[in-house]
Write a structure and sequence with these properties.
255 residues, alpha/beta, five-stranded parallel sheet, elongated
Length: 255
């Protein structure tokens, strides 16, 4: 690599060591500088021992990205760590935007390393609710106008997508989650199955089944992911399942 530098944007998954991919482990191992939100370093403490670790708090995502691009541009081997998948509501897009602005021609070597997203993790704990077409919508209006979020909720429900809701409620946002339920009820019956997962694959994990009509009565926060089924989603035993559409009769053409 010479003095070109290296910039790896790594998804850590939900946080448990078992859900960190081998590719992510290798990427952290080859980096001399690791940059991320201060809370993430506890997840990979054994992997970052002896490295230069730069921890910045939430709301300083731009500062994290600019620092990573500057260090990699100066020849360092840099790893930006992000929870879940770095390309899904993570740091990858921001880092790449700043990289294009600051080093449009001769920038560092760059790679985005995938991780298990919150949606993947929560769906696995619930069963198979995402086996068919689905939409993922964050209810946080910090970066997206609420009017646009409402349009997306109505469009997804109207098209009969399974809908995964991220960031359903925070200390300053209490009314958006019940409002989201009401919007989905425009197209889906109240008995539509739904699942709520908090702290997936982390201490304090909880998994609860409910319905669209009752889901706003459940306690949720920023650590909760809510998956609302579509018109075909069923509760099969203790699993939430959206049929893929294979024929199950003995003479069917399924695999």
């Amino acid at each position: 690599m010479g003095n070109r530098g290296c910039l790896l944007i790594v998804g850590l998954g939900p946080g448990a060591a078992a859900t960190l991919t081998p590719q992510a482990r290798e990427s952290i191992g080859r980096s001399g500088v690791v940059i991320g939100y201060e809370g993430y370093f506890a997840w990979v403490a054994d992997l970052v021992a002896g490295k230069e670790c730069i921890a910045l708090p939430l709301t300083q995502e731009v500062e994290r990205a600019r620092l990573a691009v500057a260090r990699a541009g100066g020849g360092d081997s840099v790893c930006v760590i992000s929870s879940g998948d770095a390309g899904i509501y993570g740091m990858a897009s921001l880092v790449l935007e700043i990289l294009e602005s600051d080093h449009p021609v001769d920038g560092p070597e760059v790679a985005v390393i995938p991780g298990i997203s919150a949606v993947n993790a929560c769906a696995a704990l619930l069963g198979a609710p995402l086996a068919h077409d689905f939409a993922v919508i964050s209810l946080s209006d910090l970066l997206t106008p609420w009017e646009l979020i409402e349009r997306r909720l109505l469009a997804a429900a109207g098209a009969d997508f399974v809908v995964a809701l991220l960031n359903p409620k925070s200390g300053r946002r209490a009314w958006q989650f019940p409002r989201a339920r009401d919007l989905l009820l425009h197209y889906l019956p109240p008995q539509t199955p739904a699942g709520l997962v908090r702290n997936a694959y982390r201490p304090g994990q909880s998994v609860d089944m409910t319905t669209l009509g009752r889901m706003a009565d459940s306690p949720v926060d920023m650590l909760t992911t809510v998956i609302v089924g579509n018109s075909r989603t069923r509760l099969l035993g203790h699993w939430l399942v959206t049929p893929r559409g294979y024929r199950l009769d003995p003479e069917g053409a399924g695999p």
